[in-house]
Design goal:
The chain contains eight helices and 16 strands.
């Protein structure tokens, strides 16, 4: 495995960053999780744009251009001879001292990892997930806007731990008003009487790239889609629920807090979206190899 760090490639055992890096010490940094399918990186431009938007929001000046970042990512895939992979692109504030102040960090650190990823076992895509609502609330936009895909994921990790203790693979996170925000690592969609809804990002949801793709697919499939505030009740009475994310892709949910969703099996619309998304990932994207 070859890992990109600040313009050079290192073997896995030699790929190291300083213990004084503020990404490690304070979670001061941003990242993107990106997928490649069939020799193409899916929605790469959108991921790069979001990375630079996140950087701007936290006053982190990325030292290379979007074009250079794109080439570094593609070269990482080439160095590992990968056509299908998960890519983790990270930019930290860089090496500083033990103080909190970011102005002691001279230059941001950039590293890129390309490897395989299996977020959920295959049987969950056929049979669906059971999820529960976490007591851990989603971080308020007034504290740290979830639109920034930062390295501060302890909020999500604590919610994920609740799911593990409950024996499920994913949890629903509510905002401070008790409204549905998102899951610990995925966006959420519900379908009721042919109408599809998802929480707006101002409720505490990340503006997911896969979520963005689903908006496009809904239009193509002729499905009415609305961004509206949602409660747990809206999930309990839904005909179908599915989650979306770069790692998860599109995965069905068949039980929420002990309530069976629809018929308790993968719904017809969910199957259509799963198929349409898989088709989209394999017919579009930025080529890795010239």
């Amino acid at each position: 495995m070859k890992i990109y760090i600040d313009g050079k490639f290192y073997g896995k055992e030699d790929a190291k960053i300083s213990v004084f890096d503020h990404g490690l010490l304070y979670g001061d940094g941003i990242f993107e999780g990106i997928r490649a399918y069939n020799g193409r990186v899916f929605m790469l431009e959108e991921h790069i744009d979001r990375l630079y938007d996140s950087a701007k929001a936290i006053l982190l000046e990325i030292p290379i251009s979007k074009k250079e970042m794109t080439e570094a990512l593609l070269e990482t895939c080439r160095q590992n001879n990968l056509k299908e992979c998960y890519i983790r692109l990270v930019v930290t504030r860089g090496t500083g001292n033990l103080g909190l102040s970011p102005d002691r960090c001279e230059r941001p650190t950039i590293f890129i990892i390309a490897a395989s990823l299996e977020l959920y076992p295959e049987n969950f895509y056929k049979e669906g997930l059971a999820v529960v609502t976490a007591s851990t609330q989603r971080t308020s936009p007034a504290a740290l806007n979830p639109a920034v895909k930062s390295l501060n994921y302890l909020n999500n990790v604590m919610a994920k731990l609740e799911g593990k203790l409950a024996g499920v693979h994913e949890v629903i996170m509510l905002n401070s008003e008790g409204l549905v925000a998102e899951c610990s690592g995925d966006n959420i969609f519900a379908i009721k009487n042919g109408r599809m809804t998802t929480p707006p990002i101002y409720m505490g949801a990340l503006g997911g790239i896969t979520r963005m793709a689903l908006f496009k697919l809904a239009k193509e499939l002729g499905v009415e889609l609305h961004e509206v505030p949602m409660t747990r009740y809206d999930l309990f009475v839904a005909d179908e629920i599915f989650l979306t994310g770069t790692g998860a892709e599109v995965i069905p949910v068949v039980k929420v807090d002990g309530r069976t969703i629809g018929e308790g099996s993968v719904g017809a619309w969910t199957r259509k979206f799963m198929g349409a998304y898989h088709d989209l990932t394999r017919r579009s994207g930025t080529p890795i190899f010239p």
